[in-house]
Amino acid sequence: MPTIRENKAKTKLQQGQVVATISGLHSSDIVDFLGPVGFDAAWFEGEHGPVDWDVLGDLTRACDLWGMASITRVAANEPWLITRTLDRGSMGIVVPHVNTRAQAEAAAQSAKYAPLGYRGMFGGRQAFGVADYVHQANDQTLVVVLIEELEALKNLDEILRVDYIDVFFVAPSDLSQTMGHIGNTGHPDVQKAIDEAIAKIVSSGRIAGTLVNDDNLAGYLDKGVKFVMTSWNGWVTRGATQFMANVAANVRT
Questions:
Q1: 214 three-state secondary structure
Q2: Which residues are catalytically annotated?
Q3: Domains delineated in the chain
Q4: What pLDDT, in 10s, does the model give residues 6-39?
């Protein structure tokens, strides 16, 4: 009988390594296209993006082919939603707006079978052909909670005490909004809050994650961030913009 698939991202985090995660993927063809690049995980959008239940099965299958961990942001911290997302083949979840210890505990427990939690008793796609899946799945299921509101920062010490959460992801955009600087993640107060949250997560011995780009990646890695996520859309936009500039510069009138 086949064994359960290894969650590459979770394994690397447990070994103290950096996990590179790509987002902005809305079709299995794009996952296949980027698969050879070597990302550790793909982040699928069930909150802001077009991913539905049928598409999620195909997206996670494509990740399996390339040895990438499939991680899906759910729209809400709801047990049924988390259970179904995992049943459709996602190897991890991202839970938004986790502002209290109780909310963090609910997220972790919804993703884990007993005795750690109360995930609904159904294996889904990752269980096919795997003997005793429900006794193995907890070890391979990745749980990410988003720290994205001022309330979460105020309660961060308590949130960090919750077991079975793999990544505490500091999300700059929503955080800037709740701080009164909507659309300005670069505001000094926002950056200070992000840096302080990351420092607290790292010093507590937990794993910090955040959104990165080419310019700030090295800085966040130096601060101890181990889970980095970026979108491929920015690379396409920059390349396409440069191409059009080259066209314009070389057009003879």
A1: coil
A2: 48
A3: 8-250 (3.20.20.60)
A4: 999 999 999 999 999 999 999 999 999 999 999 9
